[in-house]
From TrEMBL:
GO MF annotations, alphabetized: GTPase activator activity
Lineage: Eukaryota, Metazoa, Spiralia, Lophotrochozoa, Mollusca
InterPro entries reported in the protein's UniProt record: DEP_dom (IPR000591), G-protein_gamma-like_dom (IPR015898), GGL_sf (IPR036284), RGS (IPR016137), RGS6/7/9/11 (IPR047016), RGS6/7/9/11_DHEX_sf (IPR047017), RGS_DHEX (IPR040759), RGS_sf (IPR036305)
GO biological process, one term: negative regulation of signal transduction
Source organism of the structure: Pinctada imbricata
Domain (DEP) ranges: 28-104
Name used for this protein in its record: Uncharacterized protein
Length: 573
């Protein structure tokens, strides 16, 4: 039994094969309970039910959940290690209505003798078409597949027919029980590898290889150089420190706990101001943009975890550069940024950037000469043409470690970092747009006065004597939202239009802001047949239904012009 190297044979298939071998043992060796099928061939064939299979899996692998055992049994059936006798369903159920049999190892998945290529499938369909139509007739999807294969392999049609006739001739020589069992096994094999449309296909072919096994074996041939490389690799593997799995697991848990608060996917509740994947609010992305003026509190706190988090953030790198200017060592971060720019630069700019970095940072008496040891400087000066893009990596690593061990710790203790953290502490609160009814500064904002006749931008508490307002002021309810009296909302109210003079100007009062802050100028527009256009503004009702019923529905008549109105925010000409 040779494995097919062209198929994706995995350890999972090997485990399923071992499971089938244990099931096929006798009942005394903890195997499956087999039941003889009643009928003509009761002495030759044995089968088992789905309940027997699930019970054996639960007992053998100590599985308590019946759903897990049922899923494992269905997997064995879908991969073709067992098959149902009636071929109706390949989902194993915990009952005794359906019988199953073991598939012969010849038809197990990914075996050399059981490959399911298209030519063998065409021979199988041709063979069934030559036999009894009532017992071995092709189904609709098989007829369609047969027609397509005959068109594809039109040059091999004669070969397919000859092979099919020879196999039919060999089948006729077998005994009737063997013939019946072989037909079922072969049909179950193709039912798994060429399933009907709409059913699950677990056996997908892997990627095709464009080289032969002999070529692979030639690549594995050992020579003196190959053995030398293998010895060096094994020596380095022995010198490499190895950690226990428990220690590695603790490190991963610690890392997860440390970064959990900074990841919206890991901790959705602590994300400020809100999680964008839950609330559909993009404020979190806007507050954490790379070009924002003031970073958020979590973003600044993350810089204190490691130097890599600080240097990988664009704002953090800028703030760190501002700190290094005070320390008179800004050339380190400038050199680091320039080398990063070199790594991402196109090929046409590499040489220019290499000469610029060497002239500004590495030459003797350079404008921003960096402090590196002589050994690292010698490695950088000897430029390899094929590795120009990464020639400054030793110097960059040296500068990185220097900033990490010296400047980074002093930056975290500096007043600049503390002030930035205090400034960023209130940043999420300023960007919180949905704090309705909350405490804080939102409650201190004054609501519009309920007195009738007062407009926005009117700071005067005194009323003008010429104001045309009738009826008394309604009762003020501080807990209810007040009606807006600006002209921007008046179009939604019921405005009773009246016919005007031929000039087209409607009568009314035209108000504008006066030059004095506490007075209002009322301009009377005199036209013929002057009539007033009144707007009815409803009074606010209390929430309580009983009080609402007891209140008298009164409206306030406000005289405003019907057209050519100037809004308060537009100012005077």
């Amino acid at each position: 039994m040779v494995l097919n190297i062209f198929q994706p044979y995995s350890p999972a298939h090997e485990k399923m094969e071992k499971m089938i071998l244990e099931m096929s043992k006798s009942e005394n060796d903890n195997g499956m309970i087999m039941r003889a099928k009643r009928g003509i061939f009761s002495d030759s064939f044995q089968s088992f039910t789905g309940a027997d299979l699930i019970e054996w899996i639960k007992r053998r692998y100590s599985i308590q959940d019946i759903r897990e055992a049922t899923s494992l049994a269905s997997m064995l059936c879908l991969y073709g290690y067992i098959y149902p006798v009636d071929f109706r369903s390949y989902v194993v159920k915990d009952d005794r209505s359906t019988e199953y049999r073991f598939q012969t190892p010849y038809y197990w998945p990914y075996k050399t003798d059981g490959t399911a290529d298209s030519i063998k499938y065409a021979i199988y369909l041709q063979k069934r078409s030559l036999r009894n139509k009532q017992k071995h007739g092709l189904e609709d999807y098989e007829l369609e597949a047969y027609d397509k294969l005959m068109k594809v392999f039109c040059d091999k049609k004669e070969f397919i027919e000859i092979q099919a006739r020879e196999q039919v001739h060999e089948i006729k020589k077998r005994r009737r029980p063997d013939k019946f069992l072989t037909d079922q096994q072969e049909r179950a094999f193709w039912r798994v590898n060429r399933p009907p449309p709409g059913t699950t296909r677990c056996l997908e072919e892997g990627p095709k290889r464009y080289f032969q096994p002999s070529q692979m074996e030639a690549k594995r041939r050992k020579n003196k150089e190959g053995y030398r490389l293998e010895i060096n690799f094994l020596r380095r593997a022995l010198e490499k420190p190895r950690l226990k799995f428990s220690k590695v697991f603790d490190c991963y848990c610690m890392w997860n706990d440390q970064y959990k608060a900074y990841d919206p996917f890991m901790d959705a509740t602590s994300t400020q101001p809100s999680n964008p994947w839950i609330s559909d609010d993009t404020t979190y992305w806007e507050a954490n943009a790379h070009d924002i003026v003031t970073p958020t509190e979590l973003r600044v706190k993350k810089w204190a975890i490691s130097f890599h988090d600080l240097i990988s953030d664009e704002i953090g790198r800028y703030e760190f550069a501002e700190f290094l200017k005070k320390e008179y060592s800004v050339e380190n971060i400038l050199f680091f940024n320039k080398v990063e720019e070199l790594h991402k630069a196109p090929v046409s700019r590499i040489k220019d950037l290499v000469y610029e970095i060497h002239r500004v940072f590495l030459d003797k008496g350079a404008e921003r000469e960096i402090n590196i040891d002589s050994k690292t400087l010698e490695e950088v000066i000897i430029v390899d043409i094929s590795k120009e893009k990464y020639v400054f990596d030793p110097a960059q690593e040296h500068v990185y470690l220097l900033m990490k061990k010296d400047s980074y710790t002093r930056y975290l203790r500096s007043e600049q970092y503390k002030k930035l953290l205090e400034k960023a502490h209130s940043q999420p609160i300023k960007r919180r747009f949905f704090n309705f009814g909350g405490s804080g500064k939102m409650n201190k904002r004054q609501t519009p006065s309920p007195k009738l006749g007062r407009r926005r931008d009117s700071n005067s508490s005194d009323r003008d004597a010429n104001s045309d307002i009738s009826l008394d002021s309604p009762v003020h309810h501080p807990n209810l939202p007040q009606h807006s009296y600006s002209t921007g909302n008046l179009k939604e109210l019921d405005v009773r239009q009246t016919p005007t003079a031929s000039s087209g100007a409607s009568p009314g009062l035209l108000r504008r802001k006066s030059d004095e802050p506490n007075t209002l100028n009322v301009i009377h527009v005199s036209t013929g047949n002057r009539r007033k256009s009144n707007l009815e503004v409803p009074n606010p009702y209390p929430v309580n239904n009983e009080r609402r019923k007891s209140d008298i529905s009164t409206c306030v008549n406000i005289s405003v012009p019907s057209s050519n109105c100037v809004a308060p925010w537009e100012g005077s000409d």
